[in-house]
Amino acid sequence: MYSTILMLHHYIAFIAILLLAYATINGAIGASSEKVFEESHRKINVFALISCHTMLLLGLILLAVSPIAEVAFADMGAAMKDSVLRKAVVEHPFTNIIAVVLATIGNAKSKKAIGNGRKFKVSMIFFGLALVLILSRLPFEKLF
Question: Which sequence ranges are marked TM in the entry (predicted)?
Answer without folding.
Answer: 6-25, 46-69, 89-108, 120-140
